[in-house]
Structure formats: structure tokens, C-alpha cells
Amino acid sequence: MGRVKDIPMATRWAIATQVLTHLVVVADPQQCRETPAYLFDELGREIAGIAERYRMPRENARDLVQTLGAISVILFGPTFETPYIEGSPDESVIRLSECAMYRPEREKRRDPLQVNRVCLAYVKSAIEALNPRYTISISRARCGRDSYCEMVIEKKRG
Predict the structure, then answer these.
(1) pLDDT tens, 24-46?
(2) Which of 109, 115, 130, 134 is 20 to 30 Å from the Cα of 62, by its Cα?
(3) CATH number of the domain encompassing residue 113
(4) For 59-87, what is each residue's pLDDT tens digit?
(5) Range of 108's domain?
(6) What's the order of all strands across the beta sheet hosting 149-155?
(7) How big is the CA angle at 37 (ends 35 and 43), to the nearest 5 degrees?
(8) Is-above-0.90 flag for pTM?
């Protein structure tokens, strides 16, 4: 059940509702001000729980592209849908021509650097929770004036 198309619509909604409800329940404003990563850590743990519950793959970089993509589409919509682009079990690349978090034509009031920080916090927390042996970096970003977003999931060194 690793691809979005394999997950029934009712299950997608159940997952989205569960995650957003969880975030609201744990959103202690005092804690969020002191520790900005708090919500993303919680989101990562919830994503890992979903992956485990629905037996989504997460053993290697290829699996992580698939699982991160499926969950991100459920949470943020179809602009996060990506085919597996390239790579190996130790390193894989995701490319997105659109971004659910940043659309220049609509985002006149939001700082692109803030969008980039939020996106990076989201994907890092998700990958860390799904498989702590891997990491993710953003090498290109639409909010950074690139024509597409590119993320690299790779096995941690050392």
C-alpha cells in the first residue's frame, strides 16, 4: 500500500484527519514558542505511526520516496505527487514541478525563506521518523526561485 492510488479515499481522509487532529491536540502554544521544532517532531512521529499501521515501505531511500510522497499527497494535495525519479537504495532524488507550500502567484505576503524553512522542517522530521538511518536535503526549491523543487534522500554517513 505504498502509492497514493493504492490507498482508498476513505483511508486517505482518515489519515489526514488523524494527523491534523493530533497536531491540534498537542499544540501547546507555550511549548511551540520555546521549541519551534516541537510540532514537526510530533508530525514526524505521527507519520511514522501511519506508515507502520498501513505497512508502507521505509527500509531504504526508494521506499522513503514512495512513502513520503504518498503521505504528503494525502496531507497537502496532489502537487506533492511525484513519480520515483532516480536513485538507489542508499540515495534517491525527488523532483516536483509544483509546490503545495509555495505558489508565487498566490504567496505575495509570505516570506519565501520561511516557506523553505517550514518545508525543510517537515521533510526532515518525516524522514527522520520514518527511518533514522536516512536524511533529506533540499537542493533546489521553487521558493528559492528555482523552476522546480529537488530533494535528495540519502543514507547518513558515518
Answers:
(1) 555 555 555 655 677 888 889 99
(2) 115
(3) 3.30.1380
(4) 999 999 999 999 988 888 777 777 667 78
(5) 4-155
(6) 86-87, 91-96, 149-155, 134-140
(7) 130
(8) no
Count up the domains in the chain and report the number.
Answer: 1
Rounded CA separation 96/140 (Å): 10
Is residue 1 classed as helix, strand or coil in its secondary structure? coil
Q: Are 56 and 70 in contact (CB under 8 A)?
A: yes
Cα gap 96→75, rounded to integer Å: 16
Report how far Cα 83 is from the mean position of its chain's Cα atoms.
15
Residue 145, CA atoms < 13 Å, CB-side half-sphere: 0
Contact 127, 105 (CB under 8 A): no
For the packed helices 9-26 and 61-76, what is the interaxial angle rounded to 10 degrees?
Answer: 80
Which residue reads 523553505 in cell numbers?
Answer: 116
- The cell numbers describing 57, all together, are 515501505
